[in-house]
Prior knowledge:
By secondary structure, this protein is of the alpha/beta class. Helix 1 (6-16) packs parallel to helix 7 (176-193), helix 6 (167-174) packs antiparallel against helix 7 and helix 12 (361-377) packs parallel to helix 13. The radius of gyration is 32 Å and the shape is elongated.
Amino acid sequence: MSSTPVSFEASYRTLVDHFAKPVVIFDQHLRVSYTNIEFQSLFHRPITSLYELADTSELHQEGSVPEFIHRTGSWQGKVTATVADAKPYCLTLMPVGDPSEVNRYAGVLDCAINDAEPSPVSEVTPLSDMLTGLPDRYAFHHELTRRIENQSVEPDFAVLYIDLDHFKDINELYGHSVGDRLLCHCARQIRTILRKEDFLARVSGDEFAAIVSWEEHYEMHFLCQRLMRFFERPVAMDGEYYQFTLSIGLAFFPEQGQTPQDLLINSEKAMFRAKQQGRAQFQLFDRQQSIEVEQSQRLAESLRRELKQCPEHFSTAYQPLYSVQSGECVGLEVLARWKSPVHGVVPPSAFIPLAESRGLINALTARQFEIIRQDLANSKGHKLFIPIIAVNVAAQQISDPVFERMLLDFARDVRTSGWQLEVELTESQLMTQIDGLHERLQNWRRRGIRIAIDDFGTGYSCLAYLHSLPVDKLKIDRQFLQAQTESRKEDQIMYAIMSMANALGIEVLAEGVETAEQLTRLKQLGCAIGQGFGLAPPQPWRNDLLAPLMPGSVKSKESTLTS
Length: 563
């Protein structure tokens, strides 16, 4: 019998040799490459291939066994070779390793109840995880179902969903053989901390789930704390120390789930919440948070679907930008709008972050650019100057070559229409995109694109990067204009920003102008440009959007409060 590679033996041999069930490993040609002690004790003669062990003739219409496993996930057949105890056995065959590069198959023998034909593949539920020896996800679901059905006689219980934080980093740094051994170590340690009657399973790559009985709710909190404290200590293995922590989700039956699916899903949701809150902690399932997550997911699905199938549901609004001193309109900022037949009018604060996090921001931007092109093609521009059309850019788009090609094509069309393109980036975006940022912005600028920093004053506000980056405009956040203390510190901060910007040749725009008093303050401070609902709200395209600000069109503070 051929020997297996060292890396394979390091991961599996010590674990599986004394496993209670017969285990056999086949290579990609379905030749036997390893058998455990239990398997060897069953047979009167050596087994060298799958075809000596089980009947595969029923697959002649379906293709080969590997093809069948690739399509369905596993294969099951009757054992036909002579075994020591002459009992009927079923062989369940599953792929081992990366699904895209499967070159081994693991087989587990189970003693059949009778000699009937094996169950269809859709019903096959191997009950053991090949790596850790723990029950697998199917076995966990089966046990959870049993506990729920016997709730009247079984103790109260909860489901713990346990995830190893940053375990992927360990796999990438040290290799999967080390990762596999650490997973086995974790499985043993978690099993040791739980009580004998508690049920532990490996349900995914580095995720475990447990069914734990309780008499008082606080017992589960103590158990989670104990698990986390144990894994705060580095794990020593072969002279190396490996550090990782646990994130745990907790769901009680029946308060937070009355079916196996609900309990597993809700405990997993609580685990994800623990990760979002910073990892190395446990979270109890919160139904309100779950509702919010579900609503967000439904909104994201609608966003993806409608961007692809119904782009007409998306539109743009334009907010004029005015010269504070003269009242002339110098340009427009473009704002995305979405009116969904399912969700109604969705605010940008809800759907733009979703577009960014779900990889839809380029599709949304492309739709926005398409609408702007059509509107500018019908505009007359301005006789005395070239007006600005300002668009917002997401952080991940700054370094995205696909977006850059889209942006440069759009800038060319904007120039052809007699306008000038300006992109708005927030301070936090700039600080997270330092590598290559200067070159990218310089390239945009050479193509005639102006660069503006939005929400200035809320982030890092560093003179050093203002001096080094090609910036044309600062947009002072509305909080400075809308707040007014007796010491007038806000005015002092705005004046300092304007003085700094003027020294660097950078234009300043104040956001959030809502009253005539605020406009007067900006004039006194020497601000160049203003924007806000008091001057003009965002609105659909009209050819007279570039009209100057009419005298008296900005309400006083008193009239604003009483209107």
